[in-house]
Amino acid sequence: MQIAIVGFGFMGRMHFANWSRCEGVDIVAICEQNPNVLQNLNNPIGNIEGLPVAIDLSRVNLYSDLSEMLAAERLDAVSITLPTHLHADCSIRALQAGVHVLCEKPMALTIDQCDSMIEAAQRSGKHLMIGHCIRFWPEYVKAKELIDSGHYGRVLAASFRRLTAAPIWSSGNWLTDEQRSGGMPLDLHIHDADFIQYLFGLPTAVCSHATLQNDSITHIHTLYDYRDKRAIGAEGSWLPTPSFGFQMSFDILLEKATVVYDCTCRPTFRLCPADDQPVTPPLADGDGYAREIAHFAALIQGKTTDPVITPAQSRDSVRMIEAERLSATTGRPVELTPHNP
Ligand SMILES: NC(=O)c1ccc[n+]([C@@H]2O[C@H](COP(=O)([O-])OP(=O)(O)OC[C@H]3O[C@@H](n4cnc5c(N)ncnc54)[C@H](O)[C@@H]3O)[C@@H](O)[C@H]2O)c1
Prior knowledge:
- The protein is an alpha/beta fold.
- It has ten helices and 14 strands.
């Protein structure tokens, strides 16, 4: 398969490293607008440091314009790892050129943009997958497996957290510009909203409280209402100080076990059964990025038919965030209907 990467910042490099490890894949092209980016390839950026492979671009064609690249190359798939405001337009152009698209999360800034992406994918007959890597992250995969097994009874309550200092490392500071990133709820907290949707489906309503600074949400607490007398919540924040680093964590309280994960603790993952000592069960190899890209490769090679995440679910995660934002700013719960409006 011939692959290209569009946008070669933090996530572009992550996709490069993980596509490089897929069998039968050649990364033939990269589209990156900023020439300085390609000159400073080994500077660490982003909140998860360390790339698994060194970057060698000697056999890769470089472009600064997506249309030019799509016209010149015979591509099977692209990774869209651009700032969020460009996801819809660039994914649609790639789909229209007959190319499978793996686009980073969040799907897009608005529901209308998500709809246009879904329509373009349907018209092209090509795969469109949004990179909600947490659905592939070993600890989160294990938590879902434990819940779905039914062995420990029902989930009675669950709480998810994702906290990091405001990301001021992005090119042109696009991440802290709400017009380009959607702000903290859409950029960061959507990981947990999407995972909650993956575990429990679309909630009936959301109820959020938030800290607003200059009219932007920098910290949010949300309760997801499933009308079944269970407390399911998530917290996201860009308020920690830089020295705090990055924390993602969850506590899932089942009838017969408590499952906890915290990326800042050792061990990171514990299964605490009602009738036994805590254990750390074996987790899948690799990180969520590697597993997500291997899954997308398998999907387009026809080696699996299970999408793990559909474009409609990715759109629903954007809807959840829109509803949370509305709830936080109006001070009332916001309902979510299960079908598209
Ligand atoms: N899945 C995750 O855990 C995760 C983590 C971080 C970021 N992301 C998402 O990945 C996407 C990219 O984020 P990032 O942190 O890599 O940003 P980044 O700023 O590090 O990289 C974006 C790159 O795109 C380039 N670019 C901008 N406009 C372009 C254009 N028109 N054509 C070609 N290149 C262009 C920029 O020069 C930059 O190098 C965002 O949507 C973000 O939300 C996902």
